């Protein structure tokens, strides 16, 4: 008998919306009865609307902390009642949260107490300087969850020891590549960017642990030796701390803004793109699958989760978390680019094997065991 699964994602922007959509589509491919509760302001709403789900609930969500109280009040006293009424005569097997949100915990407690709660923990070890509210929310979600999905097996024992979860209640599901990015149109990069022979790319949200200052310093050192390279730093977030360092980097373009789904491909489409994951702390990166799928050579720092994503250096060049080591691997990338094409092909083959149907099947098999 097909499982009744509620997928709830109440964020608005970024990779979480795509990840939730892809896993939902995978569950549908396996014949599940899927009900979706998402933000009415989610970026990829039009994609959700065409999925053959049983019901799509659109919940207005807050984009700012100052609006959070009024939005939460409306959620509690209007939408919780509507959700409870709709599911009054439907036996829900699983409440699945592909990413966390405090309101999902409220629904779990007020509406779906009898369902199994499956929570995806993207960062078992929280990033430095992470705001307190999301950290506490994640701890509560892990504590309340019947099962926890993690994206890297390297953190399996950490979940057992730190969060006291039973081994049978943890499942490892690697991060796949977002297929939607292959379908959208993108602008020709040549009109916007100077195309060098080798093009380094930092892509994603700008935060302290991403190592941008280290990347800028390593790039500047390499640029003293070569005039056939460029650097692009693309993403939203506070870049003020790095403006001066990036301004001194030759042939560099910075776009400090949110990047829509229909633009992602263009940043990986330039010839000889080398994607640099210069993180000083990380459990995994959603940029890695995008780069692999786009045939971009990868340089990643020696963080355990990133190593696992790249099969311990088989699919990427590995740098220590230091400017000199990063510089050496960037130099290696351009001096031996043709020699690394075999690695690029292996990375694409690997990420293509992680289809969302296959990843959803791992989740579904775990669910079937959990509620057997």
UniProtKB/TrEMBL annotation:
SUPFAM superfamilies: UDP-Glycosyltransferase/glycogen phosphorylase
Top-level division of the source organism's lineage: Bacteria
Coiled coil regions in record: none
GO MF assignments: glycosyltransferase activity
Segments forming domain Glycosyltransferase subfamily 4-like N-terminal: 19-176
Keywords linked to the UniProt accession: Transferase
Entry-linked InterPro entries: Glyco_trans_4-like_N
Biological-process GO terms, alphabetical: lipopolysaccharide biosynthetic process
Name the record gives this protein: Glycosyltransferase family 4 protein
């Amino acid at each position: 008998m097909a499982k009744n699964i509620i997928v709830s994602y109440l964020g608005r922007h970024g990779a979480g919306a795509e990840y939730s959509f892809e896993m939902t589509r995978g569950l549908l491919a396996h014949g599940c009865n899927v009900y979706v509760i998402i933000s009415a302001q989610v970026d990829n709403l039009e994609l959700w609307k065409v999925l053959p789900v049983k019901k799509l609930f659109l919940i207005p969500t807050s984009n700012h902390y100052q609006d959070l109280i009024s939005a939460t009040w409306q959620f509690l006293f209007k939408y919780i009642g509507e959700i409870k009424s709709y599911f009054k005569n439907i036996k829900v097997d699983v409440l699945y949260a592909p990413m966390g949100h405090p309101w999902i915990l409220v629904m779990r407690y007020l509406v779906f107490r009898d369902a199994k709660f499956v929570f995806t923990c993207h960062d078992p070890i929280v990033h430095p300087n992470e705001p307190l509210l999301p950290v506490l929310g994640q701890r509560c979600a892990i504590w309340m969850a019947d099962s926890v999905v993690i994206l890297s097996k390297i953190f399996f024992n950490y979940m057992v020891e730190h969060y006291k979860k039973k081994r049978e209640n943890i499942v490892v599901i690697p991060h796949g590549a977002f297929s939607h990015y292959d379908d959208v149109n993108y602008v020709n990069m040549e009109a916007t960017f100077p195309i060098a022979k080798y093009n380094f790319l930092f892509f994603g949200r700008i935060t302290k642990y991403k190592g941008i200052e280290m990347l800028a310093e390593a790039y500047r050192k390499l640029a003293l030796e070569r005039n056939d390279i460029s650097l692009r730093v693309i993403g939203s977030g506070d870049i003020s701390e790095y403006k001066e360092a990036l301004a001194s980097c030759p042939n560099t373009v910075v776009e400090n803004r949110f990047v829509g789904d229909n633009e992602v491909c263009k940043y990986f489409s330039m010839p000889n793109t080398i994607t640099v994951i210069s993180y000083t702390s990380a459990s995994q990166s959603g940029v890695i699958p995008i780069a692999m799928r786009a045939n971009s050579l990868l340089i990643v720092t020696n963080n355990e989760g990133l190593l696992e994503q790249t099969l311990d250096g088989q699919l990427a060049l590995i740098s220590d978390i230091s400017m000199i080591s990063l510089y050496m691997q960037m130099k290696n990338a351009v001096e031996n680019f043709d020699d690394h094409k075999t690695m690029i092909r292996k990375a694409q083959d690997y990420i293509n094997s992680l289809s969302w149907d296959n990843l959803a099947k791992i989740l579904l098999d775990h669910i079937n065991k959990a509620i057997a």
